[in-house]
Amino acid sequence: MDTSDLLAALDRDGQLLAEAAARAGLDASVPTCPEWRVRDLVTHTGTVHRWAARMVGESLTEPFAIPAAPEADGPELLAWFREGHRLLVRTLTVAEPDLRCWTFMPAPSPLAFWIRRQAHETAVHRVDAESALGEGSSSAGFSSLDAEFAADGVEELLVGFHGGERSRVRTDTSRTLRVRATDSGAVWTVHLSDGPPRTERTAEGPADCELAGPVSDLYLALWNRLPLDALGCTGDASLARLWRERSVIG
Fold first, then answer.
1. Are the C-beta atoms of 122 and 81 separated by less than 8 Å?
2. Rounded to an integer, what distance in angstroms lies between the CA atom of residue 228 and that of residue 220?
3. Whether the model pTM is above 0.90
4. What does the pLDDT look like over 143-168, one tens digit per residue?
5. What is the pLDDT of residue 249?
6. Paired sense of beta strands 232-235 and 209-213, if any
7. Where are the alpha helices (DSSP H) in the chain?
């Protein structure tokens, strides 16, 4: 997906997150993250935005701790979030294409990595903020997701996060999970074993389980923001449950 489109999504979703948080109230619970209140969500996303902005803005080649949250609350906390979001968008917009800085997944370039990662980070947490409004029991309760953006987020999750050693999605015997977008035609085949999952953009070969649905629903369900029963499931449903139990990104 073009980085300019990802930047536009990051800009939009950060604003939507702040608007939903203000409407829900900072004390509201977040159904998609049951351990959080909206205050925790805003604080978390705001600190990540500032962390990423500093990484890119200062061309840092080593990781550093995510900064501490401010002691602000109420309107001040939301203003702090909006300021950090604008800083991140501005920093990524003006960064040089040949930027060199630390990343934690393969990407065409460090700048491409950070734009993509922060776009999806913000989109997922925008969904969390909207869930606090009590309207998110299905994807219809959330602001729309562009199909190309949703497919890119599925790809980042399956190939990026779960293609590395830290993925906990493992099986004692080789199994195959297929993920099919019924509206866009995108298909991913995830080969599971006792090692890191290996994902291919193909529909070839048999699968033990297939999850299917509109690509925006796939995005939300695979990121654990919609229940798996929002998707069609054929084959061995225990493989889908294994995904849900072990795929959470810490």
1. no
2. 9
3. yes
4. 999 999 999 999 999 999 999 999 99
5. 78
6. antiparallel
7. 3-24, 38-57, 75-94, 110-131, 147-155, 215-222, 237-246
- Report pLDDT digits (tens) over 177-231: 999 999 989 999 999 999 999 999 999 999 999 999 999 999 999 999 999 999 9
Structure tokens at 113: 């990595």
Mean pLDDT, to the nearest integer, of 21-39? 97
Long-range Cβ pairs for the range 242-250 (8 Å, 24+): 242/169, 242/171, 243/169, 243/177, 246/168, 246/169, 246/170, 247/157, 247/162, 247/167, 247/168, 247/169, 247/222, 248/224, 249/157, 249/161
**CA 108, CA 88: separation in Å to the nearest integer?**
20
d(C-alpha 125, C-alpha 16), whole Å: 10
Question: Positive or negative CA dihedral for 38, 40, 42, 45?
Answer: negative
Structure-token pair, residue 91:
């920093």
- Residue pair 183/151 in contact by the 8 Å Cβ criterion: no
The crossing angle, in degrees rounded to 10, of helices 75-94 and 38-57 is 30
What is the spatial distance between Cα 85 and Cα 104, in angstroms, rounded to a whole number?
Answer: 21
Please report, as a single letter, which amino acid is at residue 181: A
